[in-house]
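HUMAN: Can I see a protein plus its fold?

ASSISTANT:
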Amino acid sequence: MLRNAFSSRLRIVPRYAHTHWRRTLATPVSDEDKKPRKSTTPLRRSASASLPIRANPTPTRSSIQTVFTLATAERYLLSRMRNHPEPIPHSQNSMNHGKEGEIFVFANGSFVCWGLEEEAAQKFALDVIGRVPGLEVGSLKAPETEELEFVVDPIETTRLQGDLIILGKSPPLNEVVPPTTYPSMVFPEETLFARYSFSQALSRSTSLSALEVALDEYLSSMALLPHSLAKTGKPGMGRNELVKKLGELMKFRQGLNLNRENFSDVPDFYWTEPELEKYFNSVSQALDVKIRADSVNEKITYAAEAQSVLRQLLTESSTHSMELVIIALIAVEVVIALIRDGPELWEIFTGHPVAEKKQIE
């Protein structure tokens, strides 16, 4: 566990995770760049369900705090972070005004901040994630974010209510064995695995958002292909560019369905822990993760049809080129044969001998 510049606490999560960040993250995101799809998820539509908790504070309930998720890359190599010394000096703690929080870092290229605001998350990405060599794999063009809120109330049951996470009482675990000793924590120790479960679902949603954005950009780049084919009979791009487009689509399929942790399945970690699985599923369903993953798959299927057309065009282009080469070779061979065997052929076909050259006496 590391203490970062703004006095938050870093928790590195094992192999169950995944998401990523990019160093342009200090650039503010304009209102035009914000994606409206998140505002239409069931989580946002059911926000009214959290009003009873928000409107009726109790002596046992903490203030409402932020859970902020940031994705900066396709994946993180967490071993690089575990083996790297603490990269942040203690002297800089103005970013979050000395407030403490916890950060879960996932191998899918994202991290989830509990009790910290967006500015602090960006600071962490620049000063911690950005300082570990080789940690980020496939940095995103722009970071993806997701934000929720939570309260701590020991007399309530841990759950997601509307758009508010409540950290309270949690049943004992079945098979997961907690560490014998914990580092000091900002939030209740008994809710550690609940926070992890909520965090993993949030990180998966944010990682999926990054994939959605990249796929939309890919489809936009291919949008003129049908028009070009209909108008000119040609794809309007070179062979190398076509091959690159094929590779991009294969990469999308791999990222969505073939990675160790895809977007459709519940991680193995929760198979023996139904309560933790419930926490994970509650956020996943609220953020439409499965529906969005299915939508991405449908878009990939459409793109695969375009890929089939591209592959056919490449094959036809290659075949046509080979035919031209063969025709040219045959023509050259015919010309050589005529030059070499022309007199004999003339005598055979006409019956007239070719005038012999005068011999030099």
